[in-house]
Amino acid sequence: MPVTARVSMPSRGRRTAKLRIGEFGLIRTLQQRYRSKSSRILRGIGDDAAVIVSGHNRRQLLTTDLLAEGVHFNLRTATFADVGFRAAAANLSDIAAMGGTPEYVLVSLAMPRSASPAQVGQLYRGIMAACRPHDVRLIGGDTSASAMGWFINITLVGSAASRHVLLRSGAREGDDLYVTGTLGDSRAGLQLLRERAPAGSRRSLPPRHRRFLLNRHLRPTARIREGRWLSTGRWATSAIDISDGLSGDVRHLCEESDVGVDLDLSAVPISTACRVYATVANENPAMLALAGGEDYELLFTVPCGQRARFQRATASNRIRATRIGAMKSARQGLHMTLSNGRRRPLPFISYEHFSSKT
Ligand code: ADP
Ligand code: MG
Q1: Which of 80, 303, 329, 331 could bond 123 through an S-S bridge, CB–CB 3.0 to 4.6 Å?
Q2: How far apart (Å, rounded) are the C-alpha atoms in residues 343 and 116?
Q3: pTM score
């Protein structure tokens, strides 16, 4: 790619932290260069999934993700079944963020010559364990040898009614900002796997909290039910899933919607396990949530006039959604309010800026 892709934009997430080409700059360049004029392509590059007209009032949703050994997973700390599950969940989560229903999956593998049938079998068991609850069928893929480690590429195809598609670009000034579930767990689980916490603190983390955090990292839940509920009920004006970390993903939502945000850091939902982990590991829980990534929760906006109705509806439908901020005009910019009440520009933070370990 041209050198312009190396703009001063920060590189995003763990995938590209060590690349000369920042992922964000590359995507912007591709988006501008290959913008398509077809009336059937409603969204190409730039959202969680592409949106294609597939029939009267029907939209097809397509998304793909690549996991590389040593970058996205480490076979010393995750089983093949875990890796397959996470790869599928990352794609399912993109369909959830579009408010869609996942339908078909294609899996491409490049594997070292030493790979065994048992390893491949485990990988597929993990993929299908994530897909089966949503009735997603395996319909194809590709197989290759790899000169360096494993590569797993998953493509997911889904659909939604045209009026139910959720885009990153629908947020408006005055909307409330919400997130499902809790944030920071996946990063805490990853740190436990890497055994970065001091030995003494690891001992003092109760086993149930450790199990919870490891599970949140290795077996993330794609919020398909929540995404469909938000879209079919016409609650959300926009949505994105949290794969890069709250500070990066809220930025994508703002850029695509051309709005600003005031994020209330003290409102960000953090699990008890993550709080206990943060205390014993001497970490800042807000940092785990802002910079962590791979929580695969949904970040979405709802008009503030709907607040009371929306909050009643989430309670009666057992949807966990926490209000964590408000959308502002683009001119007002992106800010966060700290627990001490101070307001700061929203930083772009990712753990990968501080660590090169995988
Ligand atoms: P997500 O984290 O939701 O999977 P990404 O940040 O990976 O989204 O990608 C954002 C957008 O950029 C998506 O529309 C994706 O299809 C597109 N994209 C990412 N990498 C490439 C690439 N190498 N070529 C073309 N499009 C890409
Ligand atoms: Mg996404």
Answers
A1: 80
A2: 54
A3: 0.92
